[in-house]
Amino acid sequence: MTNDFENPQIVGQNRLAPRAWFASGTTKSLNGAWRFHYSPTVAEAPQGFHQQGFDSRQWDTLEVPSCWQMHGYGRPHYTNILYPFPVDPPRVPTENPTGSYLREFTLPEGWQDGRVRLRFDGVDSFFRVWLNGQEVGLSKGSRIPAEFDVSDIVRQGQNTLAVQVHQWSDGTYLEDQDMWWLSGIFRDVSLIATPKVHIEDVFVDTSLDSKYQDAYLTIDARIHGVQTEGEYEVRAELLDPTGNAVHGGAAVVLGESVNFGGSVERPRKWSAEDPALYTLRLRLAKGDSVVDQVEFKVGFRVVEIRNGVFRINGQAVKLKGVNRHEHHPDLGRTIPYKTMVEDVLLMKRHNVNAVRTSHYPPHPRFLDMCDQYGLYVIDECDLETHGFGYGPDNITNIPEWEVACLDRMQRMVERDKNHPCVVMWSLGNEAGCGQNHKTMADWTRQRDPSRPIHYEGDSETRNTDVLSQMYTSIPDLIKHGARENWLEGEEEMVQARLRKPFVLCEYAHAMGNGPGSLKEYWEAIYGSDRLMGAFVWEWIDHGIRQRTASGEEFFAYGGDFGEHPHDSNFVIDGLIFPNRVPSPGLVEYKKVIEPVVVERTEDGLRVTNRYDFIDLGHLSATWSLRRDGELVQSGVLAIPHVAPHETADLPLPCSLPKGEGEWVLDVDFVLATETLWAKSGHGIAWAQFVLRESQLAASMAAGPAVQVEDSATALRLSGPTFDLEFDRVRGRIRSWRANGIDLLKDGPQFHFWRAPIDNDGGARAGIQTSWRQEGLDHLQERVGSVEVQSLDSGAVQITVTSRIAPPATRKGLDCVLVYTVDGSGGLTLDATVASPAEWETTLPRVGLRMTLPAAFEKVSWYGRGPGESYIDSKEAGRIGRWQATVDELHTPYVFPQENGNRTDVRWVAVTGKSGFGLRAEGDPTLNFSAHHYTTEDLDRAAHTYDLPHREEVTLILDHRHHGLGSNSCGPAPLPQHQLKVEPFRWTWRLVPTV
Ligand code: GAL
Ligand code: MG
Q: What letters, b where the CB count within 10 A reaches 16 and e where it falls short, cover 258-269?
């Protein structure tokens, strides 16, 4: 027996031809509370519920739009590649959750006379609809609209609408994106009334002349209901961004379609930087009376590939992108309007200029916002068949599935074709590369020759206009930029591919802490015109907000709902946390892709304008000079005129400082006036230069001679203000009191382990595995010798040699820590680490860890801040004086892991409220992190609620720390950011603060 939801040849029934999404006619929203019944199978779902008089009083109420799993029906299920059920296309399981929906509505007055259509913007994955007991039709394709003509069924007064949705269908096989499996009517439902004869669809094209100055606007409209040729006329009116009419035109409707156009002189062109939108008003007139009117936005822009370079309005642009899934921590894939705005604002405020709508067309309003706020979009077809692999037996290569593949593409292109923001169509994601892709590409090219076609799966670029890859390493990317990569294969194909631009449709896997090396990626991209940009994977962590039994909030990931199979926290890999708080990765991205770059020249500064279309007139700039972090002088920086892609040289805004200390010049570029997306004063770009380095070397303070009491197992050192007990057996401090207060609970001790980050490769592979295999998470210490020596200065020196090594192997690290205690109560630490053995692996970190008393909650430091930073992700860290509480220093990654490091720190003080505490000084710098969690706590925890919030503070000072990379899916840290085992030596000072 076949049925409609297990038959890929059926993509819909009675669905109207797809068309552009614009405001036409009058709309009545059918969102809101619907009656709802949930059944575990299709067969057990209520029969005949669409019939008049069906008693649904026992049913529940469910909000539409929504994903039913987010409201207690069934459960969310996360898989990356795997289908969650046996692969048996087009069959789906008997256990096929089915939602039955009912609602009544009253037809507004006067609607009877026209045409009424029923529209669903997104239903996952199959639905059938009835109105007043009569079957209207069915549709598949979860994230593309379906419209039905219900003019003949709808009636005056009360109407009853019934919809049945199946979670699984043959369509599911085409929707294997890496995300939660969620179902139901998850986007808007509406009724649209138009006159009987009306403008049904419009396709505008804006082409520019060869100088990109004057435009030609072509309007191609489909008119529904015309009976007599020549009876109607379409009149166009074009309003410029300020609302003035700039163009008019008209054409007589002869058949079903009308095509006309006209030139527009020197229109303001649309770009992400200056998203100038015109309004096109089309009126359908019969004689003097206007029978229908539609209105939508038009942007004048052309996308081209010329000489292998991707260009917008003639200019080689760089797409500074992110991959955006639709996710909301409480609502799943149902995204409130204000959340879409939030995403757009966050992107714009972080210098992002492009979005790939991975891996399906977004809610249509999102694209309106991209037009309006200015974001370039790669609009991606709702097609992924990852679970079939990439071979020829993928269903995208099977003729029975051609209709379904093509249908999805057509419905996306038709819906979104008028958006200036859409600069490329994408055939989908990870769906092999089959014959059906060719069909999709051929149709698209013929329907819309104005946009290039993207598809990462087409490595030979037979159907695509750009070469696209994901997770390419930086050295490989550089080679692609130089057209020196991928030269194997059929000569003609290779040559054709080399003529195409290169895009990284995914890179910088932002899972947990990271990604590293954004800077190096962008140096590579700016190094070649062929490289048109890159899209971080991905925008948001798809965590689902939950509470523990005791009420603690946390974000759930794969497996937390008892699903099988699942891919755990691989769904938590975004630049923003599930609650849309930016993660350090986004802050770093903003800095790396900033549109103004300032460099130091021999006698001044060089400003580069990295905008593609605008000068720097919308910015204002200031400079400030600080000594050791304290402001000395500041002023306004006059910005010269710098055309896009040009540079200008400026003198230094201040004279070169001569005094003691470290002198740092900051230059800041901010918005001079408010924009649609940020207030005036919003930071766009900045730069910092050390004009003069500190000349002072850390020195020991003089003081009275230190008193020593020595025994076989302990050593007591004291001075007027302090008292330090040393454990001779374990070779470390037992207690240290200054001015009567305990400074330490434990340590310092050598520390080499970090709680692995997702980008250490996870449990599956990667460096984390070899670190654990080497036993670096279980190091043991054997104290070799403890020697005490009184120095001439009155200070006392304790030299501890030890061997720190993993169990069960002969490998180990020879460590020496020399403590020099001076009469003022300060402590100088000289550390050396040597490795007699060859280590195949790197080290997570090389540093010292100590535990500080509970009250030490205040942290201030001079170094990079305010956010966390690591060796390959520290561009956004500004050298300055910063303050935070220990709690604030913790970055709450959904899956707990190493976090909160601060790099290039000159000194850090951790104190109680009174300011009394401990200060560590680098020579010249150190890394620090301070937490209420130990490394082991972070390592053990799988959820935030697993972390025991300890009263005491773990302070870790690192001499070196392994990079982040993006090896949860992409490459490991660059060689220069890996912490290789080599001899280490450093000197720091620890002093009590008053
Ligand atoms: C890519 C895929 C994405 C996502 C990512 C890993 O291969 O296109 O959808 O799965 O890997 O997070
Ligand atoms: Mg996939």
A: beebeebeebeb
